[in-house]
Design a protein that fits this description.
The complex is a heterodimer of chains A (285) and B (399). Chain A is of the alpha+beta class and 285 residues long. Chain A has three domains: 47 residues, Uridine Diphospho-n-acetylenolpyruvylglucosamine Reductase, domain 2; 116 residues, Uridine Diphospho-n-acetylenolpyruvylglucosamine Reductase, domain 3 (2-Layer Sandwich); 105 residues, CO dehydrogenase flavoprotein, C-terminal domain (Enolase-like, domain 1). Helices cover 33% and strands 26% of the residues of chain A. In chain A, the strands form four sheets. A five-stranded antiparallel β-sheet of chain A has the order 4-5-10-6-7. Chain A has a four-stranded antiparallel β-sheet with strand order 11-12-13-14, sandwiched between helices. In chain A, a hairpin with a 2-residue loop joins strand 8 and strand 9. Chain B is an alpha+beta fold. Chain B has three domains: 161 residues, Alpha-D-Glucose-1,6-Bisphosphate, Chain A, domain 4, CATH 3.30.530.20; 178 residues, no CATH class; 39 residues. Helices cover 55% and strands 19% of the residues of chain B. Chain B has 15 helices and seven strands. In chain B, strands 1-7-6-5-4-3-2 form a seven-stranded antiparallel β-sheet. In chain B, a hairpin with a 2-residue loop joins strand 3 and strand 4. Chain B is elongated and about 110 Å long. The N and C termini of chain B lie far apart (85 Å). Classes of the chains: A alpha+beta (285), B alpha+beta (399).
Chain lengths: 285, 399
């Protein structure tokens, strides 16, 4: 179907983009890769008055190093993420998760920041950002602010991004020596949304687990951390028994939805199994 | 899909029941909901649902299909269509009240049926969205009821007037004994009738909003008056509040001459002031003069009931909406008595509503038809002229 008519702006800088959003009227949508927004517009479930296309804003693309952090531009496409040397070295968890996002064509256009700002609970990247304690830099008419991932995701398709604000970059800590990572995704057909997925990053020290970060995809309206499992893993020996015991608590405090793909209790079971697999793979078992 | 919600409100069951049936009071509790009209037990309105990039506006009507005063059970049947043709939504909402000492437990069972694209979109998201909307509704309603408790007798009096039964006059008589409180209640009712029945002109829409704000202010004023038990000073305070909102009903052409207003006028001196105040100038209007227009809504609200959230809401809404009030006054047919009575107490009142959902496709067809006509008019004229020319030429040749 053909989308409803809309005004179109294609700024080249962040300032111009913010101005375009401010001038756009009541119902402005920001177009990043358009892999979710355009289908919804074609279904006419969304009919924004103005579309602000960020594809020409060059400063929003690319990955750079800043001390202990990697700074990923919001308009960096999934394809760019997969080929970036810095991410290959320090951001393997992001790379692994991005590899499972949709198909090659979608990854070509879809962007890292777009997927996060869309905040689909079944999307793969929000849980990774949460597990890594990423920081989101938002630009607005009144300047920039930084929001931690734990506060960024509010609800279904809802973030702390306010009207007139733009997600410009995402800061993630470098995971270097000692860290093992794994993204375990469960879906029934290739290139589908996650039914459940688990992102795990684990740091080993002298044969023990020193730190564990586990993010859950699609176990609620927002991505979640498996805090109980994280706590249970700290200080334990690296063995299948300890990992299995800790993973049994992965679904604690979650209330996943029921749908055609899976019932809530099945999702909770999946979360435990996938957490065990992800942590085991991350620590090298 | 079936959604179940339950919440407890800190008011006795009878009061909770009355508030629950006052649709204009509970409708604002629904996130994104707006009432367009109320006629007896039927009402029309809109519900906006925003979910990420998705915007849906369901427009439709709803009605009480069951009101069981004994079992304290109400059933509302609601159905609507998305404005952009994205399917329909239908809900049968069953609310059951159960007394738990001084508090009331409200069980809400919603049978929600959504068709069209939103139902297919989003992998079962609609269930959660529905649950969330209802949860917010329950929270707001329980807050609303809790503040209703503080308002005490006045609210009850106002609620008695506000209940949508044809027996409202009888109840109002009883309520009128509460004097000034009822006056404000009546005005609240009158304002509510503007809110409910105002027509489709922009000015009338503004009047509707002003009426809504006035209603809330009046409710708060009623409360204040009652708390002082008919003492003269608060009654006077209530009077300005009453007389100013009473101007709002003036533009309402549908409001029948109020039964309850004269009753109130007989029993309460303050009511006597305020009822004619709308029509022409009396001492009460003299009192109210400094408070007229925008100022009244603003000034009266803090004065009336600081604890009431609705009152302060009205005050916030007041300054922005009130400026469009004067034009509403000019559209008023002058032949109607002022202080228009509750439209809701006459369920047979003709319903002047905005029903844009239906006519739209018909309009489009008409436009298309008109376009086709204009498109073919010029060629048709050309062909006619050509035929005439040929006919003339042929004639000339023959000669």
């Amino acid at each position: 179907m053909i989308p409803a008519p809309f005004a179109y702006a294609r700024p080249t800088t962040v300032e111009e983009a913010l101005q375009a959003i401010a001038d756009g009227g009541e119902d402005v949508k920001v177009l990043a890769g358009g892999q979710s927004l355009i289908p919804v517009m074609r279904l006419r479930l969304a009919a924004p008055e103005t579309l602000v296309d960020l594809t020409r804003v060059a400063e929003l693309r690319g990955v750079r190093e800043e001390g202990d952090e990697l700074v990923i531009g919001a308009m960096t496409t999934h394809a760019d993420v997969l080929t970036d040397p810095l991410l290959a070295q320090y951001g393997q968890l992001i790379v692994q998760a991005t590899e499972t996002v949709a198909d090659r064509q979608v990854r070509r256009r879809g962007t890292f920041g777009g997927a996060l700002a869309h905040a689909d609970p079944a999307g793969d990247l929000p849980a990774v950002a949460l597990a890594l304690d990423a920081e989101f830099v938002l630009a607005g008419p009144g300047g920039r602010r930084t929001v931690p991932a734990a506060e960024f995701f509010v609800d279904y398709l809802t973030t702390t991004l306010e009207e007139g604000e733009l997600l410009v970059e995402i800061r993630v800590p470098k995971l270097g020596e000692g860290w093992g990572v794994r993204y375990e995704k469960f879906n029934r057909v290739a290139q589908a949304w996650s039914i459940v997925a688990v992102a795990a990053a684990v740091r080993r020290e002298d044969g023990r687990i020193a730190e564990a970060r586990i993010g859950l995809t699609n176990m609620g309206p927002t991505p979640l951390r498996a805090s109980a499992t994280e706590a249970a893993l700290v200080g334990v020996d690296v063995s299948m028994e300890t990992v299995t015991a800790a993973a049994a608590q992965a679904a604690e405090g979650t209330s996943p939805s029921n749908d055609l793909n899976a019932q809530a209790d099945y999702r909770q079971h999946l979360a435990q199994v996938l957490t065990r697999r992800a942590v085991a793979a991350a620590v090298g078992l | 899909m079936q959604l179940e919600n339950a919440f407890t409100v800190p008011v006795p069951i009878d009061e909770a029941w009355r508030v629950l049936l006052d649709i204009e009071r509970i409708a604002p509790c629904m996130p994104g909901a707006a009432l367009d009209s109320v006629t007896g037990d039927d009402f029309t309105g809109r519900v906006k649902v925003k979910l990420g990039p998705i915007n849906l506006t369901y427009q439709g009507k709803a009605s009480f299909v069951e009101k069981d005063d004994e079992a304290h059970r109400a059933v509302i049947d609601a159905r609507g269509k998305d404005q952009r043709g994205n399917g329909t939504a239908a809900a049968v909402i069953t609310a059951t009240l159960a007394a738990e000492g001084d508090t009331t437990r409200v069980d809400v069972l919603t049978d929600l049926n959504i068709t069209g694209r939103p139902a297919q979109f989003g992998r079962g998201v609609m269930t959660d969205v529905g649950n969330k909307l209802l949860g917010q509704f329950a929270d707001k309603l329980s807050a609303q009821l809790a503040s209703g408790d503080a308002e005490g007798d006045a609210t009850r009096a106002a609620a008695a007037v506000g209940s949508q039964e044809p027996t409202v006059a009888g109840k109002a008589t009883a309520a009128a004994a509460k004097g000034a409180a009822t006056t404000a209640g009546v005005v609240e009712e009158a304002a509510a009738s503007v809110e409910g029945v105002a027509g489709d002109t922009p000015a009338a829409g503004a009047a509707k909003k002003a009426g809504a704000a006035a209603k809330k202010t009046a409710a708060a004023a009623a409360d204040k008056a009652a708390s002082a038990e008919q003492s003269a000073t608060p009654a006077k305070k209530a009077a300005p509040a009453a007389s100013a909102p009473a101007k709002a009903p003036v533009p309402d052409p549908l409001a029948p001459p109020a039964k309850s207003t004269p009753t109130a006028a007989d029993t309460a001196p303050a009511a006597g002031d305020s009822a004619p105040a709308a029509g022409d100038t009396t001492p009460a209007t003299g009192d109210a003069a400094p408070f007229s227009g925008t100022g009244t809504v603003e000034d009266q609200a803090p004065d009336a009931e600081p604890a009431s959230t609705t009152a302060s809401d009205a005050a916030v809404g007041g300054p922005r909406k009130a400026p469009s009030k004067p034009p509403a006054g000019t559209t008023a047919p002058p032949n109607r008595p002022a202080g228009g009575g509750p439209a809701r107490s006459t369920p047979s009142a003709p319903q002047r509503t905005l029903t844009p959902a239906e006519p739209e496709p018909i309009d489009l067809l008409e436009v298309a038809g008109g376009a086709a006509f204009t498109r073919y008019a010029a060629p048709a004229a050309g062909v006619t002229v050509l035929a005439l020319l040929i006919a003339l030429l042929v004639r000339r040749r023959r000669r």
